[in-house]
Structures
1.
Amino acid sequence: MVPEGWEVKPLSEIAKEKISYGIVQAGPHVPDGVPYIKSSDVRGIIEPDDLQRTSNEIHYKYRRSAVHPGDIVFSLRGNIGASAIVPPELPEANLTQGTARISVSERHSNRFHFYQLASAPLLNRVNALSKGSTFKEISLEELRKVRVLCPPLPEQKKIAQILSTWDQAITATERLLENSQQRKKGLMQQLLTGKKRLPGFEGEWESVRLDQLFAFKKGKGLSKSAVVQNGSHKCVLYGELYTKYGEVIREVVSRCDDQDGLVSKKGDVLLPSSTTTSGIDLANATAVIEDGILLGGDIIVLRPKSQHDPIFFSHLLTHTKKHEIASRAQGITIIHLYGSDLKDLAVKIPVCKTEQKAISEVMTIADIGIEALSRRLACLKQEKKALMQQLLTGKRRVNVETEAA
């Protein structure tokens, strides 16, 4: 049902110029040439500094597909449906055959239609119209016929303004998150290598083998099918070490009813022992800070022989020994890492165990800040998604006069 006062129009009718794609063969990169936009460059925004450039001659030949600030660029293949608005700092550019220009007329808001193109219903429609099995794309003819909702221009602008406010909050939070992650990275480079010492600590660090510090154990078979929502036991599957957890398991996400298997002890450090990608993915250590968790198969368990800080060691192995651990993995189709591969791995650690604890506390404080920003970012994105569902369909109307006053 079309909301009162709204219209439905094909994309071709909201464009002031014919929707078209660009250069078929851009040729070699020309450093002082004209930027052109490929489908892989369209990721919600366009970064001018990342664009390749073509010659002025080729650009002139395809001048019909030149884009300017405010135009919408739409991906026709690969990441089908991805779109972005040409930014002001890109005064003129061109496209490739895999992207289309939608120059929205003055009777419409380009930003409103950018948001509409990014909405789930429209993306589903575009995907349904895409052809091809291994290499899918939507034709210009089909794209031009895609129908979009068109509120009156003042309402379009108001909706775009509201959603832009959420985008600004998302961008600001992403920057804060990136800055926090970089700060933690800098701290790790200094503290985990002993280049920088926390106040009150001094003296040389010692080099020891892992088998001097840990007993090596292995988790026992737990499959995905064993995971149930209200199971009686907490459990960790090896795949979750890649996808669910960082350097510390603060909250176990899976449960099962199995009782047999290796159970965690507070202080364990876990590493996955197989992958189909690359050895570098196996160099991810995770600290366990509670007893009684069932540990699944393909998990290497480092169990401390004496009191050591597991959070210090999970960070140390992941961030200072990543490439050395990866180099010890073996295999082609499936890459394996065994506990025996790691026993003689040498690590440099503080002699004073209190220093291990102090470093891990710094890492924990950094992680808490990062996790809080990550949750805020996820919340903002979910709120924006809900707003788009309401505002772009007319289920929730904005009062332009009242809100503008």
2.
Amino acid sequence: MDVILHIGAHRTATTCFQHYMRENSESLLARGIGFWGPRRTRAGLFRGVMPVAGAGPAQAQLDRAKGRVSVQLDKAAARGLRYLVVSDENMLGAPRRNLRDLRLYADAGQRMARFAYVFSGAKTRVVLSVRQHDMLWASSLAFGVARGHRLPRAHDLTGIADESRHWREVIEDVACAVPGSPLTVMPYEVFGGRSDDRLARMTGLTGLPDKHAREWMNQSPRLAQLRQILRDRGLDPDRLPEGEGRWMPFTKDQIATLQEAYQDDLFWLCDGADGLATLIEETGPVTAGQTPRADQTTRGHENGIEERRMA
């Protein structure tokens, strides 16, 4: 049984994919595909992978988590599953920490090393979804504000744009943490909102169900919603720009910097990623048009992919 660890990232249509997997669970089981999503992993299955205060020594917690997961893996294998997709973006890290640190998944390596231990003995593969940095951070910030996080200040946005940790560094950390597991990278710009295609690339199977494959879930709030959220919290909604669409807090120069960083990530992946990861593309190289160039910051046809992928 192949165990496919889909580790996120957040704001890359992971919730859409998990919804698709749940809604098609019976037909997928008939194809030999099982699914563990957040409703299962966060209901105690992964408890102790990351140490819980007051629950005993960290290694003892980790060992209990490994035992718990091993029992469930044995049960899945006994059912005759060919593939078990384990999808939980919190394996990679916490979005609130990204917002606090103003950098991507600073503890990704440490976290994934613990999950590698928990799944040791299983035949595992790791799948990571990545997204253009300006859009990823804009979505994360909007979602964070909706959940009580403060509005970013100018120096916060500057810090994000100037940060040197991008997807390449995250991928390097993950690959080092799971040295025995192949690591696959799927761009959101290609696979966002295409859950059936994402699963097909994960498993190598064709003819998968298309029911619920194009449904959007957990979208980030738009400007009108964010203004109302600020009003409800007694804050000034005029701190947000005018308009009714997506909130883009970055300046044009910052957007260009973040997009250029993403292009560097993709070039590195296309060039082989130093043997650490494999980039999965739809057709042709991502850098040939799947992702907007750094100078493509206006709305309309050039950013059509992101306009259709609203998460």
3.
Amino acid sequence: MFTLTYCSDKQKNSNEPNPYYDRAFEFLEKKNEDSAYVYFDKAKDIFEEHKNRVMEGKCLINIAIISTNKGDYYSGQLISTQAIKYFNENDKDQFSYIYSNYNNLGISSDNLKDYKNAIRFHNLALKFANDEPNKIIALNNLGNVYKENKEYRQAIKIYKTILTNSKSNNKTYPTALTNLAVSKWLANPNYNPEPDLLKALKIREIENDLWGQNSSHSHLADYFTNKNSEKALFHASKMYEVSKKIKSPDDQLEALKKIIELDSKSYKISFQRYSKLEDSLQTVRNNSKNQFALIRFDSEKLKTENAEKEVGLIQRNIGLAALSLLLIGGFFLYKRRKKRLQQENELKIKNNQLKLSKKVHDVVANGIYQVMAKIENQENIDKNEMLDELEFVYEKSRDISYEKIDSKEEEEDFSKKISELIASFKNESINTYVAGNDKTIWKDLKISTQEEVYQIVRELLVNMKKHSQADRVVFKFERINNFITISYTDNGIGISGELIYKNGLTSTVSRIENVHGEIIFDTEIEKGLKITISFPI
């Protein structure tokens, strides 16, 4: 049995009254955790408005503990984790809150069978336990985790420590004595825990500790199960009686399960009780994660019902208000639509301008630069050939405004166009190399994609010529599984990350996006530049 501790002190700052917080504790004292949850949540919002982080964190801890008590261990763990950041672990005045939070994290982790973290959180709780009762609770919870994880040696060591320091405390002593006896028996089946278990039970009966009696009868029933079925049945029956008094359905199920195994005569009746209770409890557990949402829903529903009572008094005004809202809404919708159409028109104009600018850059700027590169790189220039190329650039620039497509160019061998383009940048100081540029590489590639690829290669070459100072440039083309990969490498000075998306490379990235591809820059200063481009067919 684990022990949870709420952050139960009242508000200390009278300048920030929050009636929801004190009201939440009133509900807790009445065992009404559903309502307490709602009021802690409301109090948290008020503290958040006042920027009182400590009180806000305390509300979160109490909400987390209620969630854990209700069996919603994941929520309890999550909310407690959120609460950690609200506290200063160097402030001793906050130790009791931090202790409660780590204690809840330990218990929720244990119930989720996460024993490693449960041990870690209970050790943290022990670190921040600032009084003897809290230290004993933390130690007992830590011992319980070790016991459940079958680390009996560690559990026994902890229970002995508690027993040594709690002989004067009638409630702590029987708990430690029971846990120690059970751990010794689990570690050594030949050990007889009966005297210590009965001693603890007697103290609990004197103190009228029903939860403790429930625990004692459970352990005694377990011990006698394979040794004395009559005694085992007696303690299982006593456990069932006590568990009904404390209204613990989980313990009732455990007791009935023991009775079913021990008493064949009442098997049918006990099994029926067990099945009925289990179904009922399972239904509650299945709804536990949604119960607080339902509480909030009921709260909103109540507000709605109260508002509906006033509808009859203001019905005519509502009609007029609705009509006014309709007219105002229609006016704003009209204005909004008009504005949207205007923006769409402006965007269309901008896109056309951008498209035109891009074509001018592709056709005129890069075309002229390519002609200049030929003039610069080739000794014997054919004047007529240069004039033809310039005339071609002129014709292309003239056709931009008419959006003409050169069908003749579409029919050309694309691999040849690429090779000629790369070769045009070769000169005495720059060597260009091409690998894999076969016709099969470009088979079934759309004309629009070919145009984008051509411009991408040209932009890489232009940027190389302008910026890289390279004397060796390599293009490698591959086609694998309907994907084409272009690898560009030069041995120039490289390019810094800040410059990657400047100049023509901005357009390059845009083109690659147009063909649904991707580009990877691998840059090392003084070691050249490597670019990998891939796109689908």
4.
Amino acid sequence: MAEPLKEMFNRSYFERLSKEVSISAPRVDGGRLLKDLMNGNAGRELNARMRHASITLGTHLPSDYRKAVDVLKDVAPRMPKGYTALLYPDFVGQYGQDEPWFSLEALKYFTSFGSSEFAVREFFRRDAQGTLKVMRTWAEDDDEHVRRLASEGSRPRLPWSFRLDAVLKDPRLTTPILERLRTDDSLYVRKSVANHLNDFSKDHAKYVVDLLSSWDLKHPHTAWIAKHASRTLIKAGHVDALALFAFDSKVKVRVDDLRISPERLKLGDTLAFSFTVTSKGTRPQQLVVDYAIHYRKAGGGTSRKVFKLKEVELGPRASLHITKRQRIVDFSTRKHYPGEHVVEVMVNGKVRAQASFDLKV
């Protein structure tokens, strides 16, 4: 069984951190720092451990904020990269609000060790325009980590963080950043740009489609971003989003022989279904085939989840047989409830067939 993520902030990590801090700041008592870092650690979850660590560092590092940051800048290169390195930006977010320009420069430095995407949002929430002014310069940086931070840190709906209401209200605020990064060589950056745009899908679908329509989709990097940025709109059958990629919402097809096996399942069983897509057109057609499951909710209603299947060009009168298997198990993000579950097959965003299975939990 995998070790819980919170164990990244364990005694071994804090021993090393205390040692390195005391090397960079000899006046810090490493033993006392370790004791305070470990105090109550066992009872905390992942982010609570990190927040406790940043607050504890604040009581041991120099009281001068800039000197404290300088200590962490010296420590960071000697410590592991990855999630635990989010500790340094978290410290900046907690203690640096009164010195935003110095703090933003510190976040730029720390982001290459882990990511400053969460901490920078604290400054964005306090001064959106001022923070955006700095982040636009990050979009032109030579370091891909910094360029990604410009996009990821200003995402309107960043997972594990609060929403940026100013950006959700006016998506044009971050357009200059996205424009600058639309042909970025780094896949790491392009993924962020695509996710940034996808965040807008629910509230500003027209903005997303209009912006993508204005870009040169013949450029391979831009085309990649556009495709992934449109994924939610395409699943929803948004006509203009489909048209960007030559998917006609009025495509001439039929779906036959949708079969589900077994029709009665228990939690842990594997759902299998198959169907045939047949073109009724007289010329090749571009198809995006998805499926949806209407999951039962605790209160008796249902929640619809769309899944990708495949994209294909289907010739005139041609047929394509598709099979799919999916194990029905609980996740941290989805708990199953008993009852009828409807499965839908969609082609270019429109439901073409449906069937159901009964789940026992």
